[in-house]
Write a structure and sequence with these properties.
The protein is of the alpha+beta class. The chain contains three helices and two strands, in the order ααββα. The longest helix has 15 residues. The chain starts with 10 loop residues before the first helix and ends with a helix.
């Protein structure tokens, strides 16, 4: 009886994850294997948003959030900054959290 499952919107990730589960791998191994398989087939996937949900009997649920974050959101403006000043281009760039979420999930869940 299979007690683990992985869901993905990417066909390559589905194939790799299903193969890992067929070989008695863990759900976390399947999720990360599918993520890296998708990243290997399409370069934009590596820094795309990633969310891993893990649940189990007695362990409770865990969410590893790899969404992109904008540095400085909600922080106070530095002194000397006025509303009339131009916003720097770098302020529009979000920092991907997918790789960090994958690393933390891998270290946290065996």
């Amino acid at each position: 009886m299979q007690r683990a499952g992985v869901v993905s919107t990417h066909p390559e990730a589905d194939d790799v994850a299903a193969e890992i589960l067929r070989e008695d791998g863990t759900a976390m191994a399947a999720a990360l294997g599918g993520y890296f398989a998708a990243a290997g087939s399409e370069p934009g996937v590596l820094f795309a948003p990633l969310t891993i949900l893990v649940g189990g009997g007695g362990a409770g649920g865990r969410v590893f959030d790899g969404r992109c974050r904008q540095p400085g959101v909600g922080a106070k403006r530095p002194r000397g900054w006025t509303d009339a000043d131009r916003i720097p281009e770098a302020a529009y760039v979000a920092v991907p959290g997918s790789v960090a979420a994958a690393v933390v999930a891998c270290a946290y869940v065996p």
